From TrEMBL:
PANTHER family: HYPOXANTHINE/GUANINE PHOSPHORIBOSYLTRANSFERASE, XANTHINE PHOSPHORIBOSYLTRANSFERASE. InterPro entries: PRTase-like, PRTase_dom, Pur/Pyrimidine_PRTase. Transmembrane segments: none annotated. One of its GO terms (molecular function) is transferase activity. SUPFAM superfamilies: PRTase-like. The lineage of its organism: Bacteria, Candidatus Amesiibacteriota. It comes from the Bacteria. This is Phosphoribosyltransferase domain-containing protein. GO terms for biological process: purine ribonucleoside salvage. The keyword Magnesium does not apply. Keywords: Purine salvage, Transferase. Gene3D superfamilies: 3.40.50.2020.
Length: 195
């Protein structure tokens, strides 16, 4: 199935959601970044349909390892926050998300600088050394930010149980980059190719 706009076409490679893509799950490619897909479960501007998010999270959770005691779900702001919240509710787990805001003493707070996004710095309040986490994103495109985050978390002594995304853009080789750089297999729900 192909979706076209004035910037690119989108080829759906795998959609086990029984046609959520047909319902407008994927809208368009952002005009400023060809690798940015706008989706209707978290990154849409306007009203979001909670039933779409529930369906996406339930199907993604079915692909994840069983819940472990004390696991935390970790999401990056902004679009990773509703994803982490929804997955935590689905699994009955606690969740942590990043913020760009520095709240006082940051000596004991895990922080991460995403190099490929203008060196944006994120703080993860509530994440502790020795935690086990599942990282979730709404989409993974290049995989560079994910690799940097995984490496930083490991230095901080955090165990990464799984890395998952609702939408994987296979065009840029993120899956291979993440596997080659970290040894972790990316778990994705929907795979698309853009050109």
């Amino acid at each position: 199935m192909n979706y076209k706009d004035k910037y690119t076409s989108i080829q759906v490679i795998d959609d086990p959601t029984n046609g959520l893509v047909k319902l407008g799950l994927i809208d368009r490619v952002d005009s400023d970044r060809k690798s940015k897909i706008t989706n209707n479960f978290v990154s849409q501007i306007g009203v979001l349909d909670p039933n779409v998010l529930k369906t996406v999270i339930k199907k993604l959770n079915d692909k994840l390892p069983l819940k472990t005691a004390g696991e935390k779900i970790l999401g990056l702001q902004y679009s990773g926050v509703p994803m982490a919240t929804a997955l935590a509710l689905e699994r009955g787990s606690r969740f942590v998300f990043s913020t760009a805001t520095n709240f006082g003493n940051i000596q004991d707070v895990f922080s991460f600088t995403e190099g490929h996004r203008n060196n944006s710095k994120y703080y993860f309040y509530g994440l502790e050394k020795g935690d086990s986490v599942i990282i979730i994103e709404d989409e993974v495109t290049s995989g560079k930010g994910m690799v940097d985050l995984i490496k930083a978390l490991r230095i901080y002594n955090v165990d990464i149980v799984a890395v998952c995304t609702a939408l994987e853009t296979v065009t840029f080789g993120a899956r291979d980059l993440i596997k080659n750089e970290t040894g972790i297999d990316l778990i994705s729900l929907i795979k698309i190719d853009i050109n």
